[in-house]
Write a structure and sequence with these properties.
This protein is α+β, with helices and mostly antiparallel strands. It has one domain. Helix content is 40%, strand content 10%. The protein has six helices and four strands, in the order βαβααββααα. The strands form two sheets. A two-stranded antiparallel ribbon has the order 1-2. It has a two-stranded antiparallel sheet with strand order 3-4. The longest helix has 13 residues. The radius of gyration is 14 Å and the shape is globular. The N and C termini lie far apart (32 Å).
């Protein structure tokens, strides 16, 4: 299981790839989550924004869902940079600061992904 996952929105893949070795730092606003698997979380959140539900999606639906693509090739150092689906990018970009903070403290399953309008 992954620890200390940092989510941030970059304007393009090249900018996101440039963060691979040092993280987003102050270049991009970010939120850190703990004890999640980022690829499956991204797929689950995308499903949520397509069809909001308080329930965890069935494993069959999750496995059939398009999973995020890597922006940089995965190495054996635990760092992965993913491109998010457009629907999820829009939803996260429109999330309020309060929803980001509550999501960060509750965890992605505790409160669902951040939502709302800035």
């Amino acid at each position: 299981m992954a620890h200390g996952i940092v989510f941030f929105l970059a304007p393009d893949d090249e900018s996101a790839a440039a963060t691979r070795r040092r993280g987003p730092g102050r270049m991009f606003e970010s939120v850190t989550c703990h004890f999640i698997e980022p690829d499956s979380a991204i797929a689950e959140w995308d499903m949520y924004f397509e069809e909001p539900s308080a329930e965890t999606p069935p494993i069959e639906r999750l496995l059939a869902w398009p999973w995020p693509e890597w922006v940089t090739a995965p190495l054996n150092d635990g760092v992965e940079v993913f491109a998010l689906p457009p629907r999820l990018i829009r939803a996260l970009a429109d999330a309020t600061p309060l929803s980001w903070r509550s999501w960060q403290s509750a965890g992605p399953r505790g409160s669902g992904p951040p939502t709302g309008t800035k």
